[in-house]
Specification:
Elements (H helix, E strand, L loop, with lengths): L1 E7 L3 H13 L5 E4 L8 H4 L4 E2 L9 H11 L6 H20 L25 E2 L5 H14 L4 E4 L2 E7 L19 E6 L4 E12 L20 H8 L4 E2 L4 E8 L14 H4 L3 E3 L19 H15 L4 E4 L5 H7 L1 H9 L9 E10 L2 E3 L11 E3 L4 E2 L12 H22 L2 H10 L15 H17 L3 E2 L1 H24 L4 H22 L8 E2 L15
Parallel strand pairs: 1-2, 1-8, 2-5, 8-15, 14-16, 17-18
Antiparallel strand pairs: 3-4, 6-7, 7-8, 9-14, 10-13, 11-12, 12-13
Helix pairs in contact: 1-5, 1-11, 3-4, 4-11, 6-15, 9-10, 13-14, 13-15, 14-15
The structure holds flavin-adenine dinucleotide and succinic acid (SIN).
The site of flavin-adenine dinucleotide has 43 residues, from α1, α2, α5, β6 and α11.
């Protein structure tokens, strides 16, 4: 199979990029691959909304820039922050033109919400299901483009580079080039190679590496692992954001239900099991301090009081107002016996967002030629050591747009003859010597072990001994899984395990390199911030 533009992922980053290149190059083929259903993405679950300076009377680019820099704790790239904040407003207007609807006041102005770390009301939202609405609008717009092929249930295994032509490729090889990908078509169980002029990785986050996460099951860090295997640059993986308020439901495994930060923006108060509003003891901004601070405060309260959760108190809200803004949360709580007007909501932190990832420049280019990355899998420099709430959807759209600007020319200059000869030269996937898996337990048990060790040793608070232990256990899981991979027919489950082990290794390695505490990375052996401010490049 050949295509002009190849996009891995059907979340906000992938779909935005696809729409733009398809619009500008109607004679080119745009192929989107996604590993499960088209809409099963982190994007779909976004609740709070998208940050943007839409009210110039009360807000300004400077304030949004400043809030982002403060949350990032000294590690943001100021130039990138300015780009995202300033260009973001046009991207928001674009998605509105494509059909996304955000809540409005009776006078027609946008209803703007507030979340932790924001000095102003600037979060556009669609009730408490903003991501679902944006994903819907994008998928509808995609259907109207005849030159886009969206193929679901296709699991991308690896990026094709010179390595697959028989050359030795190392981290110091200059001009590593991406020719396309190998993909497992889950409907036919066949592995195909796809050759592309431009490949865009929009493969999302990696929350599934942890036992408790707000991310759906697709978030296994596949893109980051693929780029690392292809010897591309990865950075700042130690900065894993834990959302302070995931619903605490004992016994529920997999994805945790999020209680959006917008609830605190509207006045929700965190209380410990003694009923104390504890946030004032940690930060002057109380419940609306940046996420790293709130999550650490909750973690501390849970440890001090010996409980597995704290509470979010919304009993003082008007029921009508709560239901108007948060209908989904209201229904979810009611379904498990919590009437928010009478009961406090039990909440605990959960892995939520990866601030680091595939290192990209201001045009979303990775260190590998013809390979671009946008959205949560990329590390652009916007978030630094801690992402400001609701900046992620904005970042994804800004860099999808910038990648589009940069890559239309690349696809136009590629020749059909060039693609034909690459297709000939690149070998088919080699499955010789592999047999069908005999026992799924070899995979499922390793996944459990991985999640447990990452949650217990590499969570909100870290230390050197925990990181050392985590790495020792990862070494063993890595050796066992590689041996299994060499002798087994590939499956999504096995590949995801392999990718999650790589991602976990990168998180631990990044954490070991950082001899300080900054933003989301807190190591009790190095509790202070270092004078030297640097990214961790792996
Ligand atoms: P995703 O939307 O996650 O899409 C990833 C895509 O890649 C999927 O289609 C997946 O199938 C595909 N994929 C991955 N691996 C492979 C593979 N091997 N082969 C083929 N396809 C693959 N951010 C905000 O700004 N505001 C919010 O209010 C907000 N709320 C959030 C609430 C929740 C519960 C969560 C989980 C996140 C929230 N975020 C929010 C973060 C934000 O939603 C994500 O960072 C963003 O949506 C990521 O978009 P993306 O396009 O990069 O990836
Ligand atoms: C939330 O709604 O609290 C999540 C917002 C985000 O992750 O940016």
């Amino acid at each position: 199979m050949k295509t002009d533009f190849l996009i891995i992922g059907s979340g906000i980053a992938g779909l935005t990029y696809a729409l733009k290149v398809a619009q500008d190059c109607p004679d080119k083929i745009v192929t989107i691959l996604t590993k499960t259903q088209s809409d099963e993405t982190n994007t779909k679950y976004a609740q709070g909304g998208i940050a943007g300076v839409m009210d110039a009377n009360n807000d300004s680019f400077e304030k949004h820039i400043e809030d982002t820099l403060i949350a990032g704790d000294g590690l943001c790239n100021r130039e990138i922050v300015e780009i995202v904040v300033r260009e973001g407003v046009d991207r928001i207007k674009e998605i509105i033109d494509w059909g996304a609807q955000f809540d409005k006041e009776p006078d027609g102005d946008f209803k703007l919400g507030k979340e932790g770390g924001h000095s102003e009301f600037r979060i556009l939202h669609h009730k408490d299901v903003t991501g679902m609405e944006m994903e819907r609008a994008l998928l509808e717009a995609i259907k109207r483009k005849p030159n886009i092929r969206l193929v679901s249930h296709c699991f991308v295994l690896d990026i094709i580079t010179q390595h697959h032509l028989g050359y030795l490729v190392t981290k110091s090889t200059p001009d590593i080039e991406c020719y396309g990908v190998y993909v497992l078509d889950l409907s036919s169980s066949k592995i195909e190679k796809i050759i592309a002029s431009v490949t865009m990785l929009a493969s999302g986050g990696n929350g599934q590496v942890y036992r408790t996460t707000t991310n759906p099951s697709i978030a296994t860090g596949d893109g980051v692992a693929m780029v690392y295997r292809a010897k591309g640059r990865i950075e700042n993986m130690e900065f894993i954001q834990f959302h302070p308020t995931a619903l605490y439901e004992p016994g529920v495994r997999g994805q945790s239900f999020l209680i959006t930060e917008a609830v605190r923006g509207d006045g929700g108060i965190l209380r410990n099991n003694l009923g104390e509003a504890f946030m004032e003891r940690y930060d002057a901004r109380k419940d609306l301090a940046p996420r790293d601070i709130v999550a650490r405060a909750i973690d501390n309260e849970m440890k001090v009081t010996g409980t597995e959760h704290v509470y979010l108190d919304c009993r003082h809200f008007s029921k009508e107002k709560f239901i108007e803004h948060f209908p989904n949360i209201y229904e979810k709580c009611l379904s498990i016996g919590i009437d928010i007007t009478q009961h406090m909501i039990p909440v605990a932190p959960a892995a939520h967002y990866s601030c680091g990832g595939i290192k990209t420049d201001e045009w979303a280019a990775t260190s590998i030629k013809n390979l671009y990355a946008a959205g949560e899998c990329a590390s652009t420099g916007l978030h630094g050591a801690n992402r400001l709430a609701s900046n992620s959807l904005l970042e994804a759209m800004v860099f999808a747009h910038r990648a589009y600007k940069k890559t239309v020319a690349l696809a136009s200059s590629a020749t059909t003859a060039g693609q034909e000869s690459l297709h000939e030269a690149i070998p088919d996937w080699n499955a010789s010597g592999t047999t069908s898996p005999k026992e799924m337990i070899l995979i499922t048990q390793s996944v459990k072990e991985l999640k447990l060790l990452m949650s217990d040793y590499v969570g909100i608070v870290r230390n050197n001994e925990r990181l050392y232990r985590a790495m020792k256990r990862l070494d063993l899981l890595y050796a066992e899984t590689e041996a299994l991979y060499q002798r087994t027919v590939v499956s999504p489950q096995l590949c995801e395990l392999r990718n999650m082990i790589t991602v976990a290794y990168l998180i631990v390695k990044g954490a070991e390199f950082r001899h300080e505490s900054r933003g989301l990375h807190f190591n009790t052996d190095y509790p202070e911030k270092s004078m030297i401010v640097q990214n961790t490049i792996l």
